[in-house]
């Protein structure tokens, strides 16, 4: 049975990039992103929207979204018989492939942590390595429409790699450009070191200096 929200979402399907008969918007209110082959892009949509659009929304009891590596008793009881057999020998949590938000959060963690570990005075090779990494990251990022915009951002705002502080702030600005694009608040880049390197102890004192 189609819910009212779903039928509402499937009404306007004559948009570019939206395959015929497929929804334009997801349950989250975000636009559904489709790959070139017309299939919904798993890493460009939220899991909720992806499931809605693929009609794969399952009983939440069996969704297995737990981050606990051991299987919960609920998850185990909801398993199909073949999965039960597998679980007798292996204890895998039924984590789903990342959606756009999980992928983004994990990726920003990696990027900011790289900045936190970047040398204060990087030599030419270290600067070149990081420049190449950022460029390849933008090229290969698995959410294609995120990658497209991030590549453009990098072309217009070349990574500043002369020191840890400069790179950390450049990355913070880059992250803020995405925050603004998707309607999230900007992060105060004076605090990037506290968030990603030093921790928050005595942060008020540090800000007064
Ligand atoms: C390169 C890239 C491009 C992306 N493009 C898109 C896109 O086009 N559309 C889309 O929907 N999603 C995009 N994302 C995902 C998006 O940025 C978020 O990661 C996702 O929405 C999850 O957001 P979040 O609220 O968990 O926090 P995130 O934005 O993932 O941030 C994680 C943590 O970083 C800290 N933080 C926030 N802002 C900054 C900052 N400026 N500097 C330093 N630390 C900060 C905060 O503590 C926050 O909790 C992109 C991700 C990446 C890595």
From TrEMBL:
Enzyme Commission number(s) of this protein: 1.8.3.2
Leading EC class: oxidoreductase
GO cellular component, one term: mitochondrial intermembrane space
Keyword presence, Lipoprotein: no
Main location per the UniProt record: mitochondrion
Region (Disordered): 1-23
Subcellular location(s) of the protein: Mitochondrion intermembrane space
Compositionally biased residues, Basic and acidic residues: 1-14
Signal peptide extent: none
Keyword Transcription regulation among record annotations: no
GO molecular function, one term: flavin adenine dinucleotide binding
Catalyzed reaction equations: 2 R'C(R)SH + O2 = R'C(R)S-S(R)CR' + H2O2
Keywords: Disulfide bond, FAD, Flavoprotein, Mitochondrion, Oxidoreductase
Domain of life, source organism: Eukaryota
Domain ERV/ALR sulfhydryl oxidase: 96-196
Cofactor: FAD
Protein's recorded name: Sulfhydryl oxidase
Record lineage: Eukaryota, Fungi, Dikarya, Ascomycota, Saccharomycotina
């Amino acid at each position: 049975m189609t819910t009212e929200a779903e039928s509402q979402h499937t009404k306007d399907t004559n948009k570019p990039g939206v395959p015929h008969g497929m929804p334009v918007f997801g349950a989250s209110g975000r636009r559904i992103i489709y790959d070139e082959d017309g299939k919904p892009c798993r890493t460009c949509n939220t899991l909720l929207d992806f499931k809605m659009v693929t009609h794969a929304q399952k009983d939440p009891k069996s969704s297995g979204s737990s981050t606990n590596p051991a299987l919960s008793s609920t998850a185990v009881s909801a398993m199909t018989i073949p999965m039960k057999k597998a679980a007798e020998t292996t204890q895998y949590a039924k984590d789903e492939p990342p959606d756009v938000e999980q992928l983004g959060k994990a990726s920003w963690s990696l990027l900011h942590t790289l900045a936190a570990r970047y040398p204060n005075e990087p030599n030419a090779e270290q600067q070149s390595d990081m420049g190449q990494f950022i460029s390849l990251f933008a090229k290969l990022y698995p959410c294609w429409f995120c990658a497209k915009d991030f590549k453009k951002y990098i072309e217009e705002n070349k990574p500043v790699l002369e020191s840890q502080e400069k790179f950390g702030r450049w990355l913070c600005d880059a992250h803020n450009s995405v925050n603004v694009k998707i309607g999230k608040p900007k992060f105060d880049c004076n605090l990037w070191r506290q968030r990603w390197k030093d921790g928050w102890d005595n942060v008020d004192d540090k800000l007064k200096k």
